[in-house]
């Protein structure tokens, strides 16, 4: 993470229509939907209600009645990586999907309508990192940020930032702000002068079993207390907590192996 953490702030913020390119939703596809709801419900205090079922059973996670994320169930015969996937806002999902293809990316699902909620596509960038595209209708996306249990930031972990940043800049019209450093490869993506996501080139430090992938950070009140709760709930600590300029950060996985990061106030 760089000096900015997107729209997360000290106070709860409710969002209207998201500007094109803004991460507007995060979704997780798993094999054990009930067990996953139990894990995240206990961890973040989420409650759940049914969502569009086009791709199988799907629920939306609510925090104090406001939508924060989605969890769907994979068919038993689909052995895809279990991963949190950010959805990037679009005014025209079909045009965005066409642009993804023209720029060397891949469209794996859609574009298709998700009932009255909106129109979506699942894509991957030229390095293979998977992301979603969301054209909002009735469902605008994440309704609250800046409080524990909500997405705080989305960051692409990839081999190097320059080439893939050009892809996202072309598809979503981001403005780039590279970090000028000989040993730190990072680009912050901006929309209308506001930081919305990051690209972190980590070279050979990229996990071999994952390849390039997007990482979602969730806000928590106390990072260390949350880590203890994750272990009790059957999750795993992948990178222990450390203090950064933006808060106390750790990387973890849920019982099915979906990786995510948590960030709370520094000690």
Automatic annotation (TrEMBL):
Transmembrane segments: none annotated. Coiled coil: none annotated. PROSITE patterns: VOC. Gene3D superfamilies: 2,3-Dihydroxybiphenyl 1,2-Dioxygenase, domain 1. Residues 150-265 form the VOC domain. It comes from the Bacteria. It holds the Pfam family Glyoxalase_6. InterPro entries: Anthracycline_SecMetBiosynth (IPR052164), Glyas_Bleomycin-R_OHBP_Dase (IPR029068), Glyoxalase_6 (IPR041581), VOC_core (IPR037523). PANTHER family: CONSERVED PROTEIN, GLYOXALASE-RELATED. This is VOC family protein.
């Amino acid at each position: 993470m760089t000096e900015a953490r997107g729209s997360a702030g000290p106070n709860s913020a409710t969002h209207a229509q998201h500007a094109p390119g803004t991460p507007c939703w995060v979704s997780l596809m798993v094999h054990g939907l009930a067990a996953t709801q139990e894990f995240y419900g206990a961890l973040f205090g989420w409650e759940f209600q049914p969502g569009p079922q086009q791709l199988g059973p799907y629920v939306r996670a609510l925090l104090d009645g406001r939508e924060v994320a989605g969890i769907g169930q994979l068919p038993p015969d689909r052995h895809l990586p279990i991963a949190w996937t950010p959805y990037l806002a679009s005014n025209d999902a079909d045009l965005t999907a066409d642009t993804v293809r023209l720029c060397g990316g891949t469209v794996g699902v859609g574009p298709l309508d998700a009932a009255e909620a909106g129109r979506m596509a699942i894509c991957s960038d030229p390095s293979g990192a998977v992301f979603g595209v969301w054209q909002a209708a009735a469902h605008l996306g994440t309704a609250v940020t800046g409080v524990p249990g909500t997405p705080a930031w989305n960051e692409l972990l990839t081999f190097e930032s320059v080439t893939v940043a050009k892809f996202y800049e072309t598809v979503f019209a981001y403005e780039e702000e590279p970090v000028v450093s000989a040993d730190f490869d990072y680009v912050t993506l901006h929309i209308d002068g506001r930081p919305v996501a990051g690209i972190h080139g980590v070279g050979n430090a990229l996990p071999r079993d994952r390849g390039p992938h997007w990482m979602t950070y969730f806000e928590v009140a106390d990072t260390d207390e949350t880590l203890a709760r994750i272990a009790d709930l059957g999750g795993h600590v992948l990178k222990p907590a450390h203090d950064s300029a933006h808060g106390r950060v750790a990387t973890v996985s849920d019982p099915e192996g979906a990786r995510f990061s948590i960030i709370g106030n520094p000690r």
